[in-house]
Specification:
By secondary structure, this protein is an alpha+beta fold. The chain has three domains: 309 residues, Vanillyl-alcohol Oxidase, Chain A, domain 3, CATH 3.40.462; 269 residues, 3-Layer(aba) Sandwich (Rossmann fold), CATH 3.40.50; 101 residues, no CATH class. 43% of the residues lie in helices and 18% in strands. It contains 27 helices and 24 strands. The strands form two sheets. Strands 1, 2, 3, 4, 5, 6, 7, 8, 9, 10, 11, 12 and 13 form a 13-stranded antiparallel beta sheet that branches. It has an eleven-stranded mixed beta sheet with strand order 15-14-24-23-22-16-21-20-17-19-18. α16 packs across α17 and α18 runs antiparallel to α19. InterPro entries: P-loop_NTPase, T4SS_component.
Length: 797
């Protein structure tokens, strides 16, 4: 084994000498082979693999949450043995100049929604130009192991990948292994910026004679451009590698974040090589022994000169104390010792621009007690060490403990830009677009909350428009208690169903039209839960639950209604349930029937009819404004049953159902209603339902345990300005830090707030420009009235 290790070490040393003396770009780039699955032979006997991981809201989190992330990061580092190495890379890659201001966010080809998509694209491209950086930030973790061949390396790399994935997922990072094309693209972003790297792996065929290296190699690398030994020029782009030369006495957890938060293209890489615990202790003890010898020599010299021998040079005394603390960390505090090298990489079109960017990086590092310097005559080594290959070619480094490395957190200002998503505003700190794709969330269900005038309704209408434009095959349904969403539904080709005493639209809570093929027993069970909720909505006592006797009677009568009407070849209506209740022998049944009486007789009997409307349209608004408060809850529950039926049918044909429920707090007025809605919420996730609850009365809703659980099981929450009581309720439930609370306090302007999407917590702002989309989303009474007057009283649209 030792002989094999010696052979590999000699081969590696020879490869490095050859690479250092390389006279062509092919030999200068620091890897040998790349496989399609992403495994790379960096040098003979050294293989690496890379995973990408997402950002988390570390910098704005509570102290206890930050401590948990720090602990997990320490465990991640300690998981790498002395036989493996790891490289952490954080890279800011500029969005191609040709894409800024010219991206197509939404398809404009639809004849109905095309005009709105065109305006939305123009607005978002204008806002894209406002972004401070227009950078895409990526985080990569590359780990390398020594092995005789790739077959031997595969199981070891797979084991490390599993451990790394679990460790990162514990802090709610999304982890994705990079395949061969993705790794080449990550390298190309650093050494061929602004150029597209071919990702078609079929190009690497025998008949083409091409290898993976051919796809990423630049055309020319000038090692001393303009006579400078501290820079490179790669295909005309000026580049410079910097090394972390020295550190202050104490590092802060923002030391790396403040560098990568600079609005410039750059990359920061940290190489870490673990040391065996016993060897590390022996190493430190040896250093301490040398220091003790120096101290004795100093004391002897002091005695000979007649000085006080207890007075030691400050540097020697400090080094001794530091070494003793290090030994204590290794022996008593479960710390490990690592060989550490930190590097930064900057590039620009001109030398002057590069010098300015390097100055910005140096200042940011110095403000965090990190001194950087250029790698004179070693720029190619620096370039290869920056590439996410897991191989450190730079011999400049120092020893650090687990905690000293873990405190250099890779998490900076969080951005959210998910492909295929909708627009939710601009990042309040960077002004970059906030694009969220709710379909990518583990649980896309969510809530939008805010005080009146906070921009809540505007945000919801904007998201409805996002949904209509981004997902043209999905179905959108809106429950509208205030009659304000027709302004966005109708112009987009949708229909409105108005429920009220003077309306000829009817929804039958007994209807099973969309679920006729489903098992009868399961449908009856859910229908019974629905009628228990409807019965709860008829009760004036609010929080008082239905007695068990009432539940049994209602269940029995619902079953009887279905059986009796099935024999007659029709679907039951509320009148059938009412008659069934009157026929029961229990006195409680008459009380239940009495509560239902107004829904089956007189002016408010419009729910006691067979359904004559449905949700066949792609966009449907259920208008509930003409219903009283009690009847509104009853109407919501009836409509929910119709949506549930539709949800099943949509699922069967692969269509996602989007449901928006305004004044959702009204569904938490009675235990049986809460129970039904909670079950509906949980079941909906399994059948491609994305439901959004909208409320301005958060405290009332969050008083319910079920409501809190529903929020905690939802990965999407959009909070606008909150009252002090509501803000405290959200802070306690979601663990908001003081900084995050500040985004939703009384100082928040309309449109500002905090978007929580999975592990991301992004402060948002939105100054939406006036135009036809603004008119669709606007809810300001004076401006809406002005639009109506301008249209001659026929409505603003």
């Amino acid at each position: 084994m030792r002989e094999q290790d010696r052979e590999l070490a000699d081969a590696t040393a020879e490869q490095r000498r050859r690479r250092h003396a390389a006279r062509d770009v092919y030999d200068a780039i620091g890897f040998e082979s790349m496989w399609a699955d992403g495994i790379c032979e960096v040098e003979r006997g050294l293989f690496s693999q890379t995973v990408a991981f997402s950002d988390i809201s570390y910098q704005s989190a509570r102290k206890e949450a930050q401590e948990a992330v720090f602990s997990a990061w320490c465990q991640l580092l300690d998981g790498f043995g002395a036989d493996s190495s790891v490289q952490l890379s954080i890279t800011n890659t500029p969005i191609p100049a040709e894409e800024i201001g010219s991206r197509s966010f939404f398809d404009e080809s639809d004849p109905v929604t095309g005009r709105f998509a065109a305006e939305y694209n123009r607005i978002l491209n204008d806002k894209m130009r406002e972004g401070i950086s227009n950078l895409v930030r990526t985080r990569h973790l590359t780990y390398a192991v020594g092995a005789r061949d790739v077959e031997s390396a595969v199981p070891r790399l797979a084991r490390i990948r599993g451990e790394v994935t679990q460790a990162l997922q514990r802090v709610r990072c999304e982890v994705e292994p990079l395949d061969g094309p993705a790794r080449l693209e990550a390298m190309g972003a650093l050494i061929r910026p602004g150029r597209r790297i071919p990702t078609d792996w079929s190009l690497l065929a025998a008949h083409t004679g091409l290898r993976a290296k051919d796809l990423v190699c630049p055309g020319c690398i000038e090692t001393k451009p303009g006579g400078s030994a501290s820079k490179l020029r790669i295909d005309g782009t000026w580049c410079q590698a910097l090394v972390f030369r020295s550190f202050g006495s104490e590092l802060m957890d923002r030391c790396i974040a403040e560098i990568v938060d600079l609005p410039i293209p750059l990359s920061v890489s940290i190489h870490v090589q673990g040391m065996d615990k016993a060897r590390a202790v022996s190493f430190v003890k040896q250093r301490l022994a040398w220091m003790d010898k120096e101290i004795i020599d100093e004391q002897r010299a002091a005695v000979k000169r007649g000085y006080d021998y207890t007075i030691l040079p400050s540097e020697l005394r400090y080094s001794k104390e530091e070494a003793e603390d290090l030994l204590d960390d290794l022996q008593n505090k479960n710390q490990r010792l690592f060989r550490y090298t930190g590097l930064a990489w900057a590039y620009a079109d001109t030398e002057a621009e590069l010098d300015e960017r390097v100055l910005q990086i140096t200042r940011a590092a110095r403000s965090n007690s990190i001194e950087l310097e250029a790698l004179d005559y070693r720029q190619r080594e620096g370039m290869n060490s920056i590439l996410p290959l897991g191989n450190n070619h730079v011999d400049v480094g120092r020893f650090m403990t687990t905690a000293e490395i873990a405190v250099q957190m890779p998490f900076a200002t969080q951005e959210l830009n998910q492909e295929g998503g909708g627009y939710y505003g601009q990042n309040k700190e960077s002004s970059n677009l906030v694009i969220c794709n709710r379909k990518r969330l583990a649980s896309p269900m969510g809530y939008v909350a805010g005080k009146p005038g906070s921009g809540k309704s505007f945000s919801v209408k904007r998201e409805i428009e996002n949904t209509i434009l981004a997902y043209p095959d999905d179905q959108v349904i809106v429950f509208d208690p205030a009659g304000e969403y027709s302004s966005v539904v109708v112009p987009n080709g949708g229909t409105c169903i108005r429920l009220g005493p003077d309306s000829d639209a009817h929804l039958n809570p007994f209807d099973l039209a969309d679920v006729e093929g489903h098992a009868t027993a399961s449908q009856r069970a859910f229908k019974i839960d629905a009628f228990l909720a409807l019965s709860g909505a008829t009760m004036a006592e609010g929080r008082q639950g239905l007695p068990e006797a009432d539940k049994s009677i209602i269940s029995r009568c619902v079953e009887d209604a279905y059986e009796r009407c099935a024999a007659e070849g029709r679907v039951p209506v509320l009148a059938d349930l009412y008659e069934g209740l009157l026929a029961q022998p229990e006195p409680e049944a008459r009380g239940i029937a009495l509560r239902y009486e107004r829904y089956v007789r007189g002016a408010t009997s419009f729910f006691s009819h067979e359904s004559n409307v449905g949700f066949d349209a792609r966009i449907t608004c259920v208008d509930l404004r003409d219903l009283s408060q009690n009847m509104r809850t009853f109407g919501m529950l009836t409509a929910l049953e119709s949506v549930r039926n539709r949800m099943y049918a949509n699922f069967e044909r692969g269509v996602t159902t989007w449901l928006y429920i305004d004044e959702v707090q009204s569904l938490f007025e009675h235990p049986s209603i809460v129970s039904y809605f909670s079950k509906f919420w949980a079941e909906g996730r399994k059948f491609n339902l994305i439901c959004t609850g909208i409320t301005q009365n958060s405290v009332y809703m969050l008083e319910h345990e079920e409501a809190r659980n529903m929020v905690l099981n939802s990965d999407f929450v959009l909070l606008h300005k909150q009252s002090p009581l509501d803000r405290r309720a959200w802070a306690d439930l979601l663990g908001l830090s003081e900084r995050e609370e500040g985004y939703i306090d009384e100082s928040a302007k309309p449109g500002e707030g905090l978007l929580i999407a999975g592990a991301a917590r992004v402060p948002i702002k939105d100054d939406f420009p006036r135009g036809q989309l603004y008119d669709l989303f606007n809810t300001k009474p004076d401006e809406v009235a002005e639009l109506k007057r301008a249209s001659g009283g026929r409505g603003a649209r």
